[in-house]
Amino acid sequence: MSTALSVNLNKIALIRNSREGNFPDVLEFGQLCLDQGAAGLTVHPRPDQRHIRSGDVRNLAELVKRTPKREFNIEGNPFAKAHGDYPGLMALVEQTQPDQCTLVPDSNDQLTSDHGFDLTSASDALAPIVAKLQAMGVRISLFMDPDPVQIRLAGELGVDRIELYTGPYALQHGTAQGETLLSQYRRAAEQAVSSGLGVNAGHDLNLDNLSDFLTIPAIAEVSIGHALTVDALRLGMPAAIQAYLAICQQSR
Ligand SMILES: CC(=O)[C@@H](O)[C@H](O)COP(=O)(O)O
Ligand SMILES: NCC(=O)COP(=O)(O)O
């Protein structure tokens, strides 16, 4: 079985938002990703709407629902307050019923995601959120650092999957320290599997570092946006998606 590729469309929206109008059209690029065989689409709307807007989330949810066997994944912090057109993560999930919701502990002013949950302090607050998502029938994934102790706590919280935060791996890839880190991610994935959790991964994965990461056998899904969008500038979006799919299909 290959690893599913979920294309993150944040950066397409970021370019669109730099001008008035709807160019590039996020929906058109979402369709293109699905036409090219991506397993799903990911968005990470942030309260300041700097890239993906609430309307994009609704439109993309409809697009994915119309396309058989594809998944829509919404990422975000469930504790971030509603702000302007952003109704909050849980309201967006309720409105759009995605296949998966990935909970991420980002503060509003972060440039990008840079750490997973500390469940020694966050589990109590997350428990009612997990219960609400379970009642909606949405698969729940938690954004986590590769720490087996923390991942055991994710299992105890009753979520379905974790998403391993791969930023540090990407930064060290190709160095001796990167090899050591990869072993750490491997142990974290093993802990997830023995805790009954599926394993996703994402952040700064790219055409250079993805195949080494996917030597970890249990990775169900990778969500990739930043590097894939840059590759699309060089290669064109269809060729960029095919290049990532080729790596994903060799895995597992
Ligand atoms: C959780 C995660 O790693 C991604 O969602 C990534 O943070 C993309 O968000 P930005 O596009 O805002 O950097
Ligand atoms: N969950 C990670 C994601 O959606 C995309 O991260 P990146 O490829 O934009 O770094």
TrEMBL record:
1-deoxy-D-xylulose 5-phosphate binds at residues 46, 51, 112. The record marks 163 as: Transition state stabilizer. Its main location: cytoplasm. Keywords: Cytoplasm, Pyridoxine biosynthesis, Transferase. It catalyses: 3-amino-2-oxopropyl phosphate + 1-deoxy-D-xylulose 5-phosphate = pyridoxine 5'-phosphate + phosphate + 2 H2O + H(+). It holds the Pfam family PdxJ. InterPro entries: Aldolase_TIM (IPR013785), PyrdxlP_synth_PdxJ (IPR004569), Pyridoxine-5'_phos_synth (IPR036130). 3-amino-2-oxopropyl phosphate binds at residues 8, 19, 204, 225-226. Gene3D superfamilies: Aldolase class I. Homooctamer; tetramer of dimers. This is Pyridoxine 5'-phosphate synthase.
